[in-house]
Amino acid sequence: LTDVCNRRSACLLRNSPATSIVVGPAADVTSQLSSLRNLMIELDALTSLGDLGNLGLTTLLITDNPNLVTISGLSGLSDLRELVIATSNKLPSIPSLSNLTSLERVIIHGNAMLSTLPSMSDFTALTELDVSNNPRLTAIPSVSTLRDLMRLEVYDNANPTAISIADVSSLMASSGGMYVRRWHACTERPPHAWPLPFPT
Q1: Could you give the CA distance from residue 94 to residue 6 in angstroms, rounded to a whole number?
Q2: How far is the CA of 95 from the CAs of 27, 129, 172, in angstroms?
Q3: How does pLDDT run along the chain (200 residues), one tens digit per residue?
Q4: How far apart are CA 113 and CA 118, in angstroms?
Q5: Predicted model pTM
Q6: Gap between the Cα atoms of 102 and 119, Å rounded
Q7: DSSP string, 63-127
Q8: Assign residue 181 a region: left if phi > 0, alpha if psi is -120 to 50, beta otherwise?
Q9: d(C-alpha 147, C-alpha 141), whole Å
Q10: Among the listed residues 16, 5, 77, the one whose alpha carbon sits nearest the alpha carbon of residue 39
Q11: Measuring CA to CA, how many Å separate 101 from each of 40, 68, 92, 129, 157?
């Protein structure tokens, strides 16, 4: 990672034959990756993503990695505000996301083999959650503690409800107004607006 993203604030990993990504020792992070805040990973050959806990990321986009099987650890990314894991067709699970109390936006979309999700109870700052089009996913952890949640999209998973009605009712009562999409109630899906242009 230090070779490609050295001294950048935003880094796009694409068009590389790399099968794994490792951060390296803490000294390298301090000297070469201390400015890195936004990372997008889009690699056809990637199978393993190492622990990124030493990085000061605020945005992490893991998208279009068709051979990704393992993500080792994300719970050290305490400054992370946006997390997207999408179109990683061989990824069976997502590691613990505990301690990610700064997360405001989470999108887990289009992962063909994903069958389980970690607890989301620490996402106390979350305002948007999209868990959709994961055809093997049968359940979503409780979101009843996410009192700042304003947008919830849960559809096209293995279980068409996937989330408890009690959770949704509790959130709607506490938020005063929240957009909820379940099943196929809406025909239009707003485009995801990434927060910055990534260099190519």
Answers
A1: 27
A2: 25, 17, 28
A3: 888 888 899 999 998 899 998 887 777 776 788 899 999 999 999 999 988 877 899 999 999 999 999 998 898 899 999 999 999 999 999 999 988 999 999 999 999 999 989 988 888 899 999 998 999 988 888 887 888 888 888 888 886 555 655 566 565 555 555 566 654 433 334 334 333 334 43
A4: 15
A5: 0.83
A6: 15
A7: E--TT--EE---TT-TT--EEEEE--TT-------TT-TT--EEEEE--TT-------TT-TT--
A8: beta
A9: 15
A10: 5
A11: 21, 26, 24, 14, 26
Q: Which residue is associated with the tokens 């990672």?
A: 1
Q: How many residues does the chain have?
A: 200
**What is each CA distance from 158 to 94, 118, 183, 186, in whole angstroms?**
17, 17, 11, 18
